[in-house]
Amino acid sequence: MPPQQSDRQQENSAHATGRRETRTDSPSVFAALNRLDRRRFLGVAGAAGIAATGLGTLTACTTGTSATGKGAEGFRKVKLPTYVPANVAPADLAGNAQGLDAAYLRYPKKLVRSVPKPPGDGDSISALTETFTTPAPAMDRNRYWKELNKRLGSELKMNIVVDSGADAYLTKFNAIIASGDIPDLVWFPPNQGLRKVPQLLQAKFHDLTSHLSGDAVKKYPNLANLPDYAWKTAVINGKIAGVPVAYGRMGQIYVVNEDFWKPVGGYAFDSAQDFLDKGKELLDTRRKKYVLEPAYVNAHNMFAQWFGAPSSWRLDGGKLTARYETDEYFEALEFAVKVFKAGLFWPDPNLTTTREKMAQGTLGAYVQSFPSFLVDVKTYEFPFGVIVPFAAKPGVTAHFDFGAGSVGFTAISKGADSKRIPTLLGVLDYLAAPFGTEERLFLENGAEGTHHKRTGDGDVVLTDKGNAEAVTTAMPLAFLANAPEYLYLPGKSDLTRRIHGWQQELLKIGQASPVIGHYSDTNADKGASLTKALNDGVLDIIAGRKSLSDFDGLLKSWRSGGGDRIRREYEESLASEKKGKQGKQGK
């Protein structure tokens, strides 16, 4: 898929138009990273793109990504990096390459060293990245950063953009591209309004295919440990454009407070109607107890999984049907309207204390990405549960929507000599070291004695210095490269086992968008704004400001505004990929 999020992720971020949300800092190093898909940037749409920086002339440098299908022709030629599981301290509960996270009940005592020597070449390395938490202390007064430079063997000079709720990264990115002074390493986010990405990559960044495709990636064991679904998001026009920034594959879920649901026998449901009936029974407006957070579009997406809607698109015989066009999606919308009319949503759409209400027992469920859910269970103390999607009615097969498995990729600028590519990939390999390695312990927790200490049970606890330096500096590092997700909840081994079990259940019914790994110019240019417009209308329908009959008009506008063109471009890419596979089988 291109360097923007899937349609499903765009839809799920649209609820932000209806409410604000507080975010508390977590003791986890990657707390802010794990909240990303609930942040504004994943829903950015219609922002001025690269063309505004003077790079409009790059259209003449096209790599062929267009409605003609030439970009699709290029896509099928790439061979993804060979997957080789990392040799790390064994997990207590094994994960797999399909998205099941390895689980550790205790921090491993014996760690593996995955990078035998510093990967740097002694020269400084520049990088453009972003942080969504407290800015890191400057390098000259940051012991973690100084130690990192020693372990890398090069001084890593990060230009860290602090998310300010506006288009901070987009603005900085465009300014740097326009200046021509492009850092060695540049993070391409899933969606911050970037335009003409294929042309930009060809003109200004190295093609990394020969360095990473197939067995070539084995030179970088930690990169070889990244799953296929993550690598697909870094393929542009048949070339590997960068190293994917790994992120959990598990998508969004309904998180519950188990105690809240005990009066109705728990949170297992036979049907959507059963869910509605139990919700009505639990609703207590006098005591200000409500069933669902006021994230209407997110709730609709959860319901759509219960009704069996596809993840962004349904592929049948080479033809694509958008999830918006399916009966299942509309049935879920009808159900969402019923839920709203029944009063199950918290009445204030600007609720800012969702987790606090959950912990108090005055709110029954909220939508969360699975990685962010792992942060929440470390931060809050209440009996967590997860609603595994169930059949909304007889004859329906419920689904669980996977995420893309990455938050963009990091590309290498042509300003860096091609001879340095192995060095720069080695640095990214270090930053992608998985849990169970010495490198990951340092990256997330800094130096022992200074930034963290071990408890009597062997768990790792950050010091004040660790929270000030390790956490804040690791955050922007995690946007350059990151390890596959894992489960480690200090002192919560029983909950860890349960979460691992929930993941196994979700994997059984998981579905991925059929267009991940395929590129559409129109989707890159208009997809986010089209989805936002449609979801704004859906929000109004659920909230009663528009009627269900208005949905046909919303869908028509989506199709005529670019949806049909997006469909056509994806279908051409899928057909080309199928042709390529058939050609290989015939040889």
> What integer is the average pLDDT?
86
Please count the beta strands (DSSP E, at least 2 residues each): 19
Beta-strand residue percentage: 5-15%
Percent helix, as a range, is 25-40%
The end-to-end span amounts to 27 Å
Query: Radius of gyration, rounded?
Result: 23 Å
Query: Based on helices, strands and strand pairing, what is the structural class?
Result: alpha/beta
What global shape is seen? globular
Strand order of the largest sheet: 3-2-4-15-7
Count of alpha and pi helical runs? 20
Question: How many strands, which pairing sense, and closed or not: the largest β-sheet?
Answer: 5 strands, mixed
Segments where pLDDT lies below 50 for 5+ residues? 1-75
Describe the protein's architecture and organization.
Residues 1-75 have low confidence and may be disordered. The chain has helices at 7-13, 70-75, 143-152, 168-179, 197-204, 209-212, 221-224, 228-231, 258-261, 272-282, 296-306, 327-341, 354-360, 370-379, 421-431, 438-445, 464-477, 493-508, 521-542, 551-586, and strands at residues 102-104, 125-131, 156-162, 185-188, 235-236, 239-240, 243-246, 252-257, 290-292, 313-316, 319-322, 363-369, 384-387, 400-401, 406-412, 452-454, 460-462, 486-488, 510-511. It is 37% helix and 13% strand. Helix 19 (521-542) packs antiparallel against helix 20. It is α/β, with parallel strands linked by helices and 587 residues long. It is globular. The two termini are 27 Å apart.
Quick summary:
Helices cover 37% and strands 13% of the residues. It is built from 20 helices and 19 strands. The strands form 7 sheets. It has a 5-stranded mixed β-sheet. A 4-stranded mixed β-sheet has the order 9-12-8-13. The chain has a two-stranded parallel sheet with strand order 1-18.
